[in-house]
Every structure is written in C-alpha cells, then in structure tokens.
Amino acid sequence: MPLEKLGPYRLGRRLGRGGMGTVYAAVEDTSREPAAVKVLSAHLADEEGFRERFEAEIETLRKLRHPNIVRLYGFGQLDDVLYYAMELVEGTSLEEELQGGRRFTWQEAAQIGIQVCRALRHAHDHGVIHRDLKPANLLAARDGTIKLSDFGIAKLFGNVGMTGDGGVVGTAEYMSPEQADSRPITHRADLYALGAVLYALCAGRPPFRARSLVEMLEMQRTAVPEPLRKFAMDVPDEFAEIVETLLLKDPESRPPTALVLGRRLEATARGLLRREGRAPSRETGEPGDRPAPGSKLSVSQGDVPLPPGAKTRHDDSSFAATLAAPGTSRDDPFGVTRGGPTDVAAPAGELPAVLSPDEPTMAPPRAGFRVAPPPPSAMDASCKSAAVDAPQSGGESIGTAATRFTAVAEAEAQQAAAALRHKRFVLAAQALSLAAGLCVLAAGAWYLLRQPTADALYDEISRAAQSDQVDALAAAEPRMQDFLARFSDDARAMVVRGFINQLELDRLERRLARETRRGGPNVASSSIERSYREAVVAADEQPQRAVARLEALLTLYDGAVAGASHESADGETPQAVHDRRLIELAHRQLKRLKPLAEQATAQDLAEIHRQLARAAELQTAEPDMARRIWASLIELYGDRPWAQQALEPARAGLHAATAGSR
User: Fold this and answer.
1) Whether residue 46 lies in the annotated active site
2) Is there a contact between 596 and 542 (Cβ–Cβ < 8 Å)?
3) Annotated catalytic residue: which of 132, 150, 315, 358?
4) What would the pLDDT profile of 537-557 be if each residue is shown by its tens digit?
C-alpha cells in the first residue's frame, strides 16, 4: 500500500529512489508549502547500520542552516517508517545540465564554485565533511542559487563511528585520492571534489574516465588529469591553475580552507573580467555578455568526450530528473489529487561508481537556468543564515511513540528557550560569584594595605633564602626591594643587598651561559668577559684547564677591579659594574670547579700510571706496542701542565726505543 501521508505532509509523486530510501514531493497540510520527504527503505529500517546513518544525516542537516544548503524542515517516524522533510529546490541539478550536453563557461563555473565554497565553509565550520560532492548533489534553483544536498555520508570531524576512515565511501569520479586509498580524510577532500566538479562543468566530463571502479580508484590515487584547457580552450590560465591546484594528490598542497578558495575564485573572476573589459552588471553583478534568461548556452566545439547521447550517470538513483511542473497549482502543486504517486525512472549509468547507497535531494523538472552570482558580501557573510523558516506543523510531536514528527523550527525555539533559562541561571550564579569575589578582593586589599613591618619582611626574605626551591629567592625580590626602600638604615639591609646581588649574579651567569651555548655575541664587551667565556667553555671537557684560566683571570684583574670600584663606588660606569660582577662570577665558578678539577686530575693521573705499567710489561715481549702506548699518552696529555711530571717515564721510554732502533 503506497504511503499517502507522513506527519503533516501529504505525499505526491516519487522524485527518486536510492539505496537508502525514496524521496517524494509533498505539501504541508496547513501552509500548503512544498517540501521533499525522504523515507528510509522499509527493508533497511531494521538494519542498525543504515538506520544509524539515516539518523546521522538528519543530525547533520540540523546542524547546517545556510542559503546554499538544502534546508531540513522536520523529521519523524510512522510505525517503522523513518523520514524527514526538507526544502524542495525548484530547478535542476548540475548533473542534469551536463547530461543535456551543456558546457559551462568559466565565469559560470567560478560563480558556482564561490557559492559551493560558502556552503562548504558553513559545513566545515560546524564540523561536517560532505564527502560526496558531485554535480548530482548540486541543485540550481530557478533564481540561480546553488544548493548543496545529500549529506547521507557526511562525516562529523572526530567522529569514528558509522563512516570511519577504513572504508571507501563516495562517488568515484569525484572522490579525493585519500578517500580512494581509504586514508583518513579532512575537509580538503571536499575541496578536491569541488575541483573535479569545476573541471567537469567546463570540460563536459570528469577529470578521469575508466572502464571499471577499480581502475577509477587507481586513477584517483595516482593519475594526473589532462589539462583542463585541452577540453575547454577558452578557460583562462588563472582559472585552470586554481582547478589544477584543487586536484593535487597531496591534501596539504590544496587551498587550506573553503574560505580561502572562495576568496581566490572571487578575486580571479573579478580580475579576469576587468582585464577582458567586461564590467559586472550593476543589477545582477553578472558579466555584461551573459545570455538572457531561458536562452541556451553554446557548447564549444572541442574534444567533447561525452556527447548528449552518452550520459555520465554516477549511479542508477540520481534524483536530478524528477517532477513535471505543468498543470500544477498552489492548492495541488504536485498533482496529488490527480492520480497519486508516479514513478520516475532514472537512466542507468555506464559506471556504477557509488560505493554507498546515499542519494541527493530532489529538484523539480529540468529547465534552463542562469547561474546567479553570489551577493557582493563575499565569503565573510557566508555563515549568516538567510534560509526561509520551515513550514510550521502546529509545533508539537504528534501521535504515539511510534507516530511522531518534530518540526526543526519549533525544536530550535525550544532549545533557544532552554538556553535562555540556562543563561539566566548562569548569570545569576555569576552575579553571586562576582559578589563573593568582590568581598574576597576587598578583604585582600585591606590586608595588603596593612604594610608589613621590617621584622615581618626580613623573616619572609630569610625563609626564601633558606628554601630548597630554586625560584624561592627570586619570588621574594619584591619584598627585598620593599625592605630596602622603607628600611635602608636597618642593620639587616646589607644582608638583603647581598641577596639581591646574588640574584643579579644568577641572571648574569644564566645569560652568559645561554649566549655561549648559542655561539654568543661576535665581540665580548671586555677582555675580562672574553676570558671568562673561554673558561666556561672549557669547564665541561677540561675542568683543570677552566680552573687554570679562572685563576689567571683573577690574578690579573681581581685586585684592579675591586680597587677601582672601591674608589668610585658612586660613579661606576655600566662597564665597570659588569666587569665587577664578572669577577664575582669567576670566584663563584672557581669555587665550584676546583673540586671537579681535582677529581678529574686524580682520575687522569691514575689512568696514566696504569698505562705506563702496562707499557713496562710489554716493553720486552712487544716493544712496538709499548712504544704506541707511550706515544698515545704524550698525544693525549702532553699539553696538560699537571701531567708533565707523570709523563716523564713515557718520554724516556719512547726516547730509548727510538735510539735503540737506530
């Protein structure tokens, strides 16, 4: 028994049938507004996977509200029948136009691309990847507006559920390489598909042609499409370059977002039209030589691989060819009272390239259309909703649990009301929190205004200086400055100044070490700094050498710098202050390195003596090996002052061996 009514909608003619369900023309009882109702196939309703995907398509459409995306009106269930109502686009699909032999101009393709970019930007901003963008899913309303349909296999960003990355889902001729290869996909997969659509609009054929699905998938993964200008010589190089960039195999090489792509298409079209001297019309924004409404566009006589007789259908369930409009009226726009539902056959295609049974939304009968340019607001306005509100059904879910319908507009109103109530609650909670915070701030201000005494400040500073935490003393620096500013005559001020000087030395040491590791400045500020840096560089590999250099540095400059700073303490130049701190750092480093140098010297001397003993044992049996040991010891340690005495046996043995060989 055929369906006659679902929720508030009376069903009319069947617009199309796909693997997941059937789409009917319908009218809403109260408003008499037309709609398209998509019904999940009865034999799939009990299958969990298909039911989940059908519900996911509904959820996806609920997220999207944009003038270039088919609008969801409502959804419901009648017994075991799942369905949803959506906007009925009065026009034709781009696939139908291509099937009729139409070749689009590059200007028309650019305007279509801009509108699709706006739809994709809105979808991507809401976390939705379409994953099946193709001419059959792009519906052209009679006013020239392009509407994106069929989100049946769309994927939410981060969702690893029904349509995960492990399977190939989509239409092969317009599928991105990463989809064809079952790799994870991003929103750039939609940009690739858009590039393939633009190619097909201008060339009259998809980028690739194949005899089998396997061959098509392999071409999508590895093949490079023939240049667009081979099939459409009137396409400018700039536009062809955009399409070529969109069809790159590496997703990262494509434009980063639909917003960027849309703006590039706008700028390119504007620049090319200006170069060609065809200013846009003031009324429509279209080029001045655009054909009049209803006129046929000429098809260029080039290599047209697909003549009108050889149609490129991507599956046997495209809903592009749909409903006959003549003879209808507002009271009965779909002939519901004059014969009931009527099947409309869809022509079969050469390549059954659809790997998922998801189908696009429907459009009424094919008629000539003009591509309307997007409003001059460009891509920035694309996320603002301009869609007409859905027809109201009385607002409430009807019937029992097995018979219900939810109007999206009312559901959104209920959500908005709930959100408003929640917002009021949050505002009240925030007001209480703000009041409590103000009380805390007032108490804190009262406490801070009570300036601590010298004893309290010094106790806090002392605890920081004795703390094991690395940054404790640095955190107490404001307290030190406060102490010196208010209690400079206090006997403990000298100790506090010592702490501040220690912090300044720490900062200087870290800065010099950092600069030394990075190569440091090309020229040191003084001989003292240069010598200090050289000693620090040697410290890691030869602590004995670093100690020797630091001792030499202090021998030359310690007394002179200290005397100069004592004589002119009030008039020290910045360089003098810097040199004095370097001398203090040298003392600190020497104190740290001396134990390390002594330990390293002891270890090295022990190794020298061990190798000398080994050479003495080998001197008779293996004189050549003994000579090599002595020579190696001199090579490694011969330039170390502390090792000269220990190396005397090696030099003597090497000298005797050399003399004996003569």
Assistant:
1) no
2) no
3) 132
4) 888 778 888 888 888 888 888
